[in-house]
Every structure is written in structure tokens, then in C-alpha cells.
Design brief:
Blueprint (H helix, E strand, L loop, with lengths): L1 E7 L3 H12 L2 E7 L19 E7 L5 E6 L10 E7 L2 H12 L3 E7 L6 E6 L5 E6 L1
InterPro entries: Glyas_Bleomycin-R_OHBP_Dase (IPR029068), PhnB-like (IPR028973)
Protein name: VOC family protein
Organism: Niallia oryzisoli
């Protein structure tokens, strides 16, 4: 499944509450950074624990968006990414390897606590793809 993934700088929850009301949507998930299992390689500052790690909103019968907060400089980062959810690790690895050629890996494709594999890559055309194998 392919869904737009919106990137925010500390305003994801506020934006998703607006979208929820505007479309009479359904909030399917909203996880905060403070909900993550502790990881010494990815420490979360106390001031960031209420930021949105991942939100998933159903806008219409078949329309969905996802989003998160981050500390990245959005002038240098895309505001919208393409999120691809796949059931096959092989399919993800094939697409990942093709898209990273001439591109820029943002986060290595690797196992995470929420996905068999997850990663982010900007292809040679400047499009950022987020992969999740569920």
C-alpha cells in the first residue's frame, strides 16, 4: 500500500487534529517518541517525548495519510515522502537497491521494533521513499 507521509517539525499532532476535524476522519494511530522502547543509539530528550513518532489518519473511505515530527531542518528535507508498505522482504530489498542507485540513503533498511524492515532513501530524482515491511 502506498500512502503520503507528512513530515513536521513539532506540529504533527496539531496538524493531524485539524485534518481529522476537516474531513471527519478517523485517527487510526498516534504514537509518541516517549512510547518507544529505550535505545541507547537513539536517545530521546525529555522535551521531545510528546512529539509524534508516527500518526495514521483515515481521511476518506480509501484515503489515508501518515506523519511524524522530527528535529530535521525542513528547508533541507522533504515535507512529503512516499510511504510504501510491503509484505515481502525480497520485494522491499529489490526496490530499495534500485532506488538507492545514484540516490542518498537517509536511514538504512533494517529491522526495527515496529517493522520487519524499515528505511528511507531519496532516489536520484529527489523523491524520498520510506519502506516498511509488515
Amino acid at each position: 500500500m502506498i500512502k503520503p507521509y507528512l513530515m513536521f517539525s513539532r506540529e504533527c499532532e496539531e496538524a493531524f487534529q485539524l485534518y481529522l476535524k476537516a474531513f471527519d476522519g478517523e485517527l487510526l494511530a498516534m504514537q509518541k517518541y516517549g512510547d518507544m522502547p529505550p535505545n541507547p543509539e537513539f536517545p530521546v530528550a525529555e522535551k521531545d517525548k510528546d512529539l509524534v513518532l508516527h500518526a495514521h489518519l483515515k481521511l476518506t473511505e480509501n484515503g489515508f495519510i501518515m506523519g511524524s515530527d522530527g528535529s530535521r531542518d525542513l528547508k533541507e528535507s522533504p515535507k512529503v515522502c512516499i510511504s510504501v508498505e510491503l509484505n515481502s522482504e525480497d520485494q522491499a530489498i529489490k526496490a530499495w537497491n534500485m532506488l538507492k542507485e545514484g540516490g542518498n540513503v537517509k536511514m538504512d533498511l533494517q529491522p526495527t521494533f515496529f517493522s520487519k524492515l524499515h528505511g528511507s532513501v531519496m532516489d536520484k530524482f529527489g523523491v524520498t521513499w520510506m519502506f516498511s515491511v509488515i
